[in-house]
Amino acid sequence: MSHYLPTTHEHDIDPVEGRMALVQGSPSFAEVTEAVVRPIEIPHKRWWIAFFISLSMLGVLGISLAVLLWEGVGVWGNNIPVGWGWPIVNFVFWVGIGHAGTLISAVLFLFRQKWRTSINRASEAMTIFAVICALLFPTIHVGRVWAIYWPLPLPNQMQMWPNFRSPLLWDVFAVSTYFTVSLLFWYVGLVPDIATMRDRAKTKIRKIAYGIFALGWRGSHRHWVNYEAAYLLLAAMATPLVLSVHSIVSFDFAVSQLPGWHTTIFPPYFVAGAIFSGFGMVLTLMIPLRAWFKLQHLITTKHLENMAKVILLTGSLVGYAYAMEFFIAWYSGNPYESFVFVNRAFGDYSWAYWIMVSCNVITPQFIWFKKIRRSAAALFVLSIFVNIGMWFERFVIVATSLHHDFLPSSWDYFSPTMWDVSLLIGSFGLFFTLFCLFLRYLPVIAIAELKSVMPQANPHYTAKPKRKRHVTKSAVGVVESREDDRGSDDGEVNAEVSESQSVKVVVSGANKKLDKKPSDEPTAEAAAEEDDASAEAEAEASGEDGSDEEDKG
Amino acid sequence: MAKRPKIFGLLAEYETPADLYKACEKVRDAGYGAWDAHTPFPVHGLEKAMGLRPSLVPWIVCVMGFSGAALGYLLQWWTSVVDYPLVISAKPFNSYPAFVPVIFELGILLGSFGAVFGMFGLNRLPTYYHSVFNSSRFSRASDDRFFISIEARDPKYDPDKTRELLESTNALSVEEVED
């Protein structure tokens, strides 16, 4: 089985649905497995470099934590009006990033957005690792790490229970539930793919390790029925969950009575910001990943473009929220509220505020240009700006409301120390180390799910037409050109497709087919051997019950 | 003469979901009960071709989800009203609106446990040994091939007739698998 080398992208039309194919180059199922699994079986030199850099950053985290635990929270720049400082900024930043994964896997699943299948696995992994980083910060921010279990409702010798009226406690439940559910969701999606890894494993250790986690999965359809029901329900539960988590994180601020925090716009504004930053991080990770792992035919420009559009939408929502906060500060006539906002934009932290506005509101507007949103390099740069901007958003929210509170005599300015900076760098080290390990041992694309959205996965898709094409004349041109490009491997349009469907193929395919390179020719020998088998298939396929089902599909 | 190994049943291999779909319809119509299809991904609508009943997972999730929510309320009510009543910012002991987030989160948490562990339970997973793995061809069931297995314990099973049925379904191969 030869490895599929993508040469051209973005030209293939899904013959069943008549729209742009999600998987470009029409690979066979085996070629998809091969493309995803190969980088895991043969690690790339780049992987070692990335892993080594991440590991060094993780070392920075270890040292910073040791210093912090030894010395206490005094090593940070936190002072009395600004008691929250960077740890809470980092917490909200990482939780926000952790939202895109579940959004992609759950919300887009419920909306039947099939393009999610190429990116959901890596985004879910990103979510889990981001939430791990997020959980680190409140843990160390309490100062006495050894007492971190106090918010949990555990029976204890003091006969006390936590205060369930506090948003900080809601946060404990929300974030830990979110982590658990994301992990389960991710693992359920992984089981069939781990079974694929198990069946391909060559070494004994791999066979045992993948074997244990595959749970003896044998692709039974009796299992798939339960599996799909469970997956759908998990998605249905994760969708309100993901919205609730960042709403509750925003309650940490909104339920307090500080000007600048005490606003009703916070929950939706935080959720939009979370999706915005999460998609930013997905792009930051996916763009190099698809290039290094040569997955451009699976994670296509179309996928990047869709993600860019989500960024544009949520970025604009965030911009709207910034404007609305200002408007309400003025409209409410509350002098404290208006002072905070004027101070935000023109006070001590105006530099941070304008970094935030330019990264979060202005940068995404470039996505309106088609050239930019279809360019991987431009989107990569843009996504870095989004990440920076969203970190500054949280910094602005935390620092500006706290540093000038009601009593001018207690006003102060917050500046970070080197241990603040090293903890942030270290948390990136933790994140990237975990992500590198994920890339090394698990399939970065949900193989089973991706296969199920390919045209030949449809049971009504037939490998060969019965007669020599009865479709309209213009459609024949396209059908034949597809055959020339790919050999008769596995995918022609069935002759039985309805009239309207074939017209759709022509309309969307006509201008694309010209720039198709003739070199785009996968497995010739596989095509030859499959010819015989499919010759038999055709007779039955377009026989009795075949044709009426085709029309339905 | 050496003792013949016990037979698990017959395993037929197919190349495309379409072939599998039609073969499943035939096996279903022939009236078999102890049989299964094995696919690398969920083939859309195959449960209809196999005549399977809808999954029981939603019921488990429903029960678990509501118990989680109830447990969430019970936990907060008992700790804040019964075991440790403490006036906090002049709020009533049973300040139920403030309890909503935890009720919601625990409902989702237990519902998800119901979905995941209920699904594994119904599927009897983990099952690390299964006879279908005795076939050397079966490793492609997680890659690009589609299989039907009919078990010998099925009352309609007959080594020759069942093989004939499977061979009439456009299978690439039909083989006997040891138990």
Notable characteristics:
heterodimer, A: 553 residues, mainly alpha, 2 domains, disordered C terminus, B: 179 residues, alpha+beta, four-stranded antiparallel β-sheet, 45% helix, elongated
H/I helix tally of chain B: 5
Oligomer: heterodimer
- Going by helix content, strand content and strand pairing, the class of chain B is alpha+beta
Radius of gyration of chain A: 27 Å
**Terminus-to-terminus distance of chain B:** 19 Å
CA-based gyration radius of chain B = 25 Å
Largest interface: A-B, 77 and 78 residues
Question: Structural class of the secondary structure composition of chain A?
Answer: mainly alpha
- Main sheet attributes: strand count, strand direction, barrel closure of chain A: none
What are the secondary-structure elements of chain B, in order, as H or E? EHEHHHEHE
Give helix % range of chain B.
40-55%
Distance from N terminus to C terminus of chain A (CA atoms, Å) equals 31 Å
Please, what is the average pLDDT of chain A?
A: 82
Contiguous uncertain segments of 5+ residues of chain A: 1-9, 465-553
Shape of chain A: globular
β-sheet strand percentage of chain A: under 5%
Q: Compute the number of structural domains of chain A.
A: 2
